[in-house]
Structures are given as structure tokens and as C-alpha cells.
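Bumping with the actual sequence this time:
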Amino acid sequence: MWAYLFTVALEMLTSYLLTSFLQIGNFQASYWVKEFFNGGSGPGSYFVPLVLQIIFFLPVLYILAQKNANLMLIGAFALNILFELGCYYWAMPQSTYRFIFLRYLFAIALGIWLAKAKHINWYLVTAGALLSLLYITGVSFYDLRPPVQPDWSPQNAPAFFWPFMVVLLGLKLLPEQANGPVKLIAALGKASYHIFLSQMVYFYYMDYLFAKLPLGLYILINLTICLSAGYLFYLLEQKLRAVLNTKKEAGYAVSQ
């Protein structure tokens, strides 16, 4: 846990330092602190403080899953729904709601449950995924207005069965030994968090450079830049980790 926390903190610091230099020309501690609590700059920037919350809460769900994974999952869904209802009836502003990890509680619980599950009931999963798809379609394209935070209605507990089904199908159908395009997708998947941090900065400051190009070319250039920058960021971190681990092992050997 602490190793991952250090990695997240290092990535977050790198991202915010770069953002700070791009926006105000130099680093100011007060600006960095303010940006952290405001969620930073760029699309999805709220996700960084959200991940930090999840890291600290994850062991609680894991301990509960050790005792009874099914009960943990049901409890997480119920708590997630209660949170959504509370946000709706107390009119929690979107700017506050986006920072609270409880809105993703059921999604996190599904991941832990999957890691512990010995048997998957595909009938229940399929039924849940279809209901989620209907819910997402209703709130996105029709006049379905459930009592949840309206700005994020397609991305809450009732919608999480659908991406869960997609993950399960990927685990079941994709080959264990990847080759060609699948191998490339798998490599990019490992760097997904680094790609996220890269696109957070890029789309806030630099995508306008190609805004006048045809849409297809614009998308291709943006994808190439974000995927390449994110993957290079990932490789750099792996190198740094290897160096730190080597030094740690050398220090341990000397102490012995």
C-alpha cells in the first residue's frame, strides 16, 4: 500500500508541478496547495485526490471481503445508494460531489469481489449489465431522472454493472499470451494511469494547437501524443523504481 501511495504522490507532484509552470511561469507553494484542493487543472483532475482517498479506504473493504465477500458487496451497494440519495436531497453541489470517493464505492467493491470470487454467476451478471445499460441509456438520452446527483447520473452505482460485464468478458475472452494489437493494448493498459495524468495536462493547455485540423486527424494526433507521453512516463517510472529497489537491496545487504 505504502509503495503505491508513494508512486501516486510522486506522479501527482510531477503533474501539478508541470501544470504550475505552464500556467504561472514558476512554482508557488500556495498555488500548488490551492490547486490540489480544487482538483487541479484539466479534464478529470479531481481523480488524483480521489485516488488518494480510495487507497486509504481500500483495506477496509478488503478486510470485510475476507470475512464475507457477498455481504461486503451488498453493503457497499446499499451505502453507495444512500450516499447518492443524500447528495440529491441535500442538493450537494457538483464541485463537492466530484471529490468524494463514496460515489465510486460500489465499483471498488465489485473489483475486490471479483478478486475473491471462486465462481461467477453469469446469469446475474448479465441481468445486472442489461439493467445498467437501460439505466445509462435512460439518463443519457431520455427523460429518466432518478434521485441522484444530476451532473453525474450516468456514472453511479446502478451503472457500474455494465463496465463490470465488459471487464469480465475481457478477462474471459482475451488470450493470456497476447500478440500483435492485443499485446499493444495490454501494454497501454498497464500505463493507463500515466496516460490519464498526461492527457489531463495536455487537454487543458495544448490540444488547441490542432483544433483547426479535420476531426479525424485531430483525434489521431491527440491520441498519439497522449498515449505516447503517458507510456513514456510509465517507462520512466519503471526505471526509477528499478533504481530505487536496487539501492534498497544493496543497503539491506550492507547492513547484514
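The C-alpha cells above came from a reply further down the thread. The chain has ten helices and no strands.
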